[in-house]
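#random but structural
TW: two for the price of one
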Amino acid sequence: MLNIFKRLWQVNWAEQWQYRANLFMYIFYWLVSPIIYLAVWTSIANASANGNVSGLTANDFITYYMILLVCDQLTSNIIIHILANKVQDGTLSGELIKPIHPVLTNTLVNDIAFKALNIMILTPIWIVLALLFKPNFASVTISGILLSIPVLLLGYAINFLLSGTITSLAFWTTRVYSIHEFYYAMILLFAGQFVPLKLMPTLIQNIAKFLPFQLFMYLPIQMIQGKLSSTEILQGYMAGILWFLVAWFLFRWVWREGVKRYSAVGA
């Protein structure tokens, strides 16, 4: 199995390098929103009479969004763009006859190869942004970074499986992109990308505690900044494991039922 993943990595890594222009366009599109949020909230904090917004200073917003850029990149995925077209145009047929799961092998490796290249491009951009905004990372500790790694891994796995579940709806409908856009809007709202959850209404904060989205960005950011107690970190881990199991069984069920009704010319 290890040799299969090694070969898939070589193929997908080479494939990603062939679409460099597309890669650059994607990363710049993806960077726009967080940088705008960073600039807006920093300006609001600087313009306020007491120099903060509900206790968050300009530096708090800068460090939050600088860390968010990394967390978002590590936990996001492009499975909808890799798989949905294959279902709709029938090219999935060739992968279904192979003795490996198309999503948990080829699509997964393709997504990781794309992510690795994105991080290579993001790194110099992130350094330039750090020089421009001059964040003070005094609250960031090595222990906080290490504690956030399991949540980041769980966040990526959960996001990948939930996106895979939604993408699998392409077996039933051609409107799967619209459904996935709604899922993305939920991430913007409940993962803390639009605004730190601390500034959201209490009702939104309470709802977010029962959803998986804060595992993608908000919780790892809070861990990296050392703002969570040991109890809250443990609760975050337990929520991550629980949502991983839910996402795993949901994806397996939707995929299995979808493949049963799949048909294509030559399939």
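TW: number two ↓
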Amino acid sequence: MAADTDTAGPAGDTLAHIEAGLDALETSAEPESSRLRHVAASVLPPIIAVALILAVWQILYAAKIWPDWKLPGPSQVFSSLKDTFSEGDAWGAVGHSIAHGAVGFGASVAIGTPLGIVTARFKPVRAGLGPILSGLQSLPSVAWVPPALMFFGPSPAMLYTVVLLGAVPSISVGVMSGLDQVPPLYLRVGRNIGARGLASVRHVLLPAALPGYLAGLRQGWAFAWRSLLASEIIVQSANLGHSLGFLLKNSQDANDMSGAFAAIVLILAVGVAVNQLLFAPLERRVLKARGLA
């Protein structure tokens, strides 16, 4: 007994010294200035990239390689964007498209998540549905617009159908990919402590597959947003409201290239905002909780 105490003593002291050293390193590595550098490293690269794109655009415009109606300058697009906001068209169109996108994406998550779990957990289902989901994921969602229009007519149901068919396969494949990376040992441990069936899915599989699941959700949102905009651009109807796709198509019909670029800027801004304000913080939080960031 005395020998065990003697052996554990030096080992315990060594571990304590190592932990104290790591704590000291982490403490010294996170001063306030390093946080500011981290924020600057996150914010400055996108600003520099946008500035470079605008500079190249302005150079091409100033070179007059193409006429103004083919390639307007950044200032012309900004002026068109300003007019869109001042006339009250921008906020309504953005709100309309985001509302449709949120409903379609929420329904896609509600369908795609259990579908991915069932497909990943049952081999016969995977053998049958796995290749179909992968094939649907690579199918351009714009291909679903004509049949959805013929079936539902120019209605919100048509929009949601195209969004579902575009986003559900991506989310399901993301869930499957995340579950495939869960070590079997986790399931064995879960079974030994009583986590079986749905309890195993809730308390073992989904938490372990969360990083892959979040990646699937991010990709699913991208597919949902693209599908929605494709539908809004192709199908114009009073039943679908005044959307971002309507703004873009209206600019095309009026041969207004500045207006078309302004609508694209709005579409891009919504995509970037959703990614940076929703998915990026969620992903950072999950990775940090697992010691991966």
